[in-house]
Amino acid sequence: MALQRSMYPGATTKRAKARYVAKAKKSAKAKKGHKSATRAKRPNYWKRVKQELHLLICTDDPKYASLRKHLGKESKPTQIAIVTSIAGTIGAYIGVAAAVIGPFVTLGLMALLQVGHNAWCAAQT
After folding, report:
1. Which residues, in sequence order, are CB contacts of 55 under 8 Å at separation 6+?
2. CA distance 83 to 107
3. 1-12 pLDDT, tens digit each
4. How far apart, in whole angstroms, are the C-alpha atoms of residue 22 and residue 14?
5. How much is the average pLDDT of 94-123?
6. In this model, does residue 44 exceed pLDDT 90?
7. DSSP assignment of the chain, as one string?
8. Angle CA(40)–CA(41)–CA(44) in degrees, nearest 5?
């Protein structure tokens, strides 16, 4: 008689399967009621990051005033580089000058950023 494989590790008979299931239930029950005094509950890091992003993006909290000021200074050259790159890529693909596509790219990015900003702030409150 050939041994029948089952989805239970090492269980080849009904009796072995029953022992495996009973052992698993006992182990789960023991873990459920077990409280460890040494293990503290870890803080939810992602939740804290989202709270801080909300303060930065959606409020005028003084905590991030210097960062907002710095971002305001550096945004102009960054915006020009991003729009130029996107417009150049699209222009080369469809055969139109980047200068013609630039304003459309700018409007599209502004709309996307405004919608994203509003959605983020609405979801966090």
Report:
1. 61, 63, 64
2. 10
3. 444 555 555 556
4. 12
5. 93
6. no
7. -PPPP-SSTT--SHHHHHHHHHHHHHHHHHHHH---SS-PPPP-HHHHHHHHHHHHHHS--GGGHHHHHHHHHHHHHHHHHHHHHHHHHHHHHHT--HHHHHHHHHHHHHHHHHHHHHHHHHHH-
8. 145
